[in-house]
Amino acid sequence: MKAEIICTGAELLSGKTINTNAAYLSKELSAIGIEVAYHTVVGDNEKELYESIDTCTKRADILIITGGLGATYDDLTKETAARYFKREMIFDKISYDNIVSYFEYTKREISENNKKQAYIPEGSIALKNERGTAPGIILKEKDKTVILLPGPPYEMQHMFLKYVKKYLVDLSGNVIISKDINFFGISEAALEYRLRSLMISSKNPVIAPYAKKGEVVIRVSARAENKEKAEEILNPVTEKICKEFSDYIYATDALNLESVLVEKLTQANKKVAVAESCTGGLVSKRITDISGASKVFECEICSYSDRIKESILGVKRETLEKYTAVSKETAAEMAIGIKRLTGADIAVSVTGVAGPGDLSVDKPYGLVYIGIKSEKYSDVLELKLGGNDKSDRELIRNLAASYAINACLRAI
Amino acid sequence: MKAEIICTGAELLSGKTINTNAAYLSKELSAIGIEVAYHTVVGDNEKELYESIDTCTKRADILIITGGLGATYDDLTKETAARYFKREMIFDKISYDNIVSYFEYTKREISENNKKQAYIPEGSIALKNERGTAPGIILKEKDKTVILLPGPPYEMQHMFLKYVKKYLVDLSGNVIISKDINFFGISEAALEYRLRSLMISSKNPVIAPYAKKGEVVIRVSARAENKEKAEEILNPVTEKICKEFSDYIYATDALNLESVLVEKLTQANKKVAVAESCTGGLVSKRITDISGASKVFECEICSYSDRIKESILGVKRETLEKYTAVSKETAAEMAIGIKRLTGADIAVSVTGVAGPGDLSVDKPYGLVYIGIKSEKYSDVLELKLGGNDKSDRELIRNLAASYAINACLRAI
């Protein structure tokens, strides 16, 4: 089956909003075996939208349109689709009740305009919007399926996952299951290079990489007529990948490194403390991004100068003078210092050169040391980060923080 | 003049890459008075690209196509455009020399494929690519202008700003100037509400908001036949906005709050220290994002538990017991503590409840206290952050960090 996506909205054409809806839907559709041939963005203009619907439905089996379902005069997606498919707009009592209860729940006044949102094209299915007021629409016309979704990603994604995905999977008579494999310590490019032939040749399961902040996730999605058969298709492939890349896989179906760290520390009833320099608080920020981190994390100290490394963390002046702040020796003493100061079970330190303007140390950009200290274990890692682009401070800091969190994971 | 944008590439249709090029170009085009009517995304498919060029050039005066200028077999934008406009592909010696010198500069081997990149449609202008190998192309055909740009944003944006923008401005016989106004403490929605009629009515200068991480930037862009006249158009509007919103404007043409803080501290030869709790290192992370922060920033301590607030920052046990960790009193003592510990000129503290899982304090999500302490000045701000969505930890933490940085700015 072939699909096309139309996203409507003046804010997309003015560039004020980046079109994330098209990418989101494309990824989800490809995971359930539906190929996307075109994306189109049109403004809030009835004639242009009508012509786009005409062009796209002639080429594709499935057309998804996002945006233009709001309550104001320039929201005209539903009306234009109804006119194209020659359907009357009819009042849908269930949608109206949903809108009323949404307004009650958010303690806001309902306006006369919102009643417009309860009209749907005759013969279509209304989809409940649990995160807003505009219902979605599924409209079948012979062998074509047209799906209208709200524009805000927060509403659209929820509605897609809750109703549309299943509808499209059922349309193909299949079920879909998927597994995320979480990698660290291998670049997306290197991973893709090694998985390339498998990724291209395997149409079911679909194998797709998702890169995020220095880690890579591979999502494997299988479709079959029932769950058991889908698992038979999925499992051998995920097992093969997990076996081949075991050195780089830290979890499956995880959010990220820091969520796994907080989970593992909670299970082990252990606490971690952090001494940072070049990452400037980023390791701490990422650990405390995780709700519930307060059970396993008490303290982080960012010492951006030699003076503070010495006075608060107790790094020896000789060490700083002899080896500088960016050294194996300083990293080790920073980890020891923060452990002593806080009494944490696991202490991690980061010191390095993230980029121009950092310290007055004559060391190359991207050189980073990670110190790790626990009851039974101590180590220092030397990293050379940043690849070809040593001027990318943000990349180097993010990677350094990820390596520090990964080091804690390994120390548990 | 009306423009359309076509972005090519399988990675866009699979959703692997979010299409930021269309938004970037739309914003830039709208600032120079060119309206964008459609975005289209097509795969690496010659027939579909040919048909899209046909559709778009019939509707628009200017067509910009990004992507498909690479060295491999599936890069076919140039060839397809040449075929559509019935031009021969000819070898361009200057482009070839540029490619050769780029390879020499990056110390890589040039391949036979790269020679393909030096062919351009007859009668077109080649644009030098300073960040990659594929030259851009400007092709005039009667009253239509077709511009081909590389797909990677890093290459595309540089080429657009360096060559294309000026070309398009010249095409309209104008010069363009612009000014960014940096706001803090007012939401994008509230600002837009107050500026709405001005934003809609003013076609020159164009007034467009850019939201980022809890702050808002308004870019005002004016066009005229020369720089002086453009300034005459720009200045009264920017002055009017600056006057009306003076309480919320912290700078013009600035990157963000933290960059202005680092700049102002450097000028004043002062140092800042940070004591964080609910922001978990984010204030420190954001200050040290700025290259050169090491001159004005030495130390941050994140104390995520009462125990550490007491033992390291010296917050009194009675204060924590009587008022809890999330209180005016604790914020004040944290600021005093970090100032004493580090000897910084300005000390700022943040304590609050960012969301579920935070501390065991019975206070509402979004309640945050910012303590500020300098030689002559001390204060505590009480904030209620997060608006309708109190469950958004990331939003609350980002806003709290922004308020803390803004408080330092005001204290200088």
Question: What are the SSEs and their pairings?
Answer:
The structure is a homodimer of 412-residue chains.
Chain A: E1 2-8, H1 10-13, H2 20-31, E2 35-42, H3 46-59, E3 62-66, H4 77-84, E4 89-91, H5 93-105, H6 112-116, E5 119-121, E6 125-127, E7 136-141, E8 144-149, H7 153-171, E9 175-184, H8 188-201, E10 206-212, E11 215-224, H9 227-244, E12 249-252, H10 257-268, E13 272-276, H11 282-288, E14 297-303, H12 306-311, H13 317-323, H14 328-342, E15 346-352, E16 367-374, E17 378-384, H15 393-411
Parallel strand pairs in A: 1-2, 1-3, 3-8, 13-14, 13-15
Antiparallel strand pairs in A: 4-5, 6-7, 7-8, 9-11, 9-12, 10-11, 15-16, 16-17
Give an account of the 3D structure.
The structure is a homodimer of 412-residue chains. The first copy, chain A, has 412 residues and is of the alpha/beta class. Helices cover 42% and strands 26% of the residues of chain A. The first copy, chain A, is built from 15 helices and 17 strands. The first copy, chain A, has helices spanning 10-13, 20-31, 46-59, 77-84, 93-105, 112-116, 153-171, 188-201, 227-244, 257-268, 282-288, 306-311, 317-323, 328-342, 393-411; strands at 2-8, 35-42, 62-66, 89-91, 119-121, 125-127, 136-141, 144-149, 175-184, 206-212, 215-224, 249-252, 272-276, 297-303, 346-352, 367-374, 378-384. In chain A, strand 7 (136-141) and strand 8 (144-149) form a beta hairpin. In chain A, helix 2 runs parallel beside helix 7 (153-171) and helix 10 (257-268) packs parallel to helix 15 (393-411). Chain A is elongated. At the A-B interface, helix 2, strand 2, helix 3, helix 11 and strand 14 of A face helix 2, strand 2, strand 10, helix 11 and strand 14 of B.
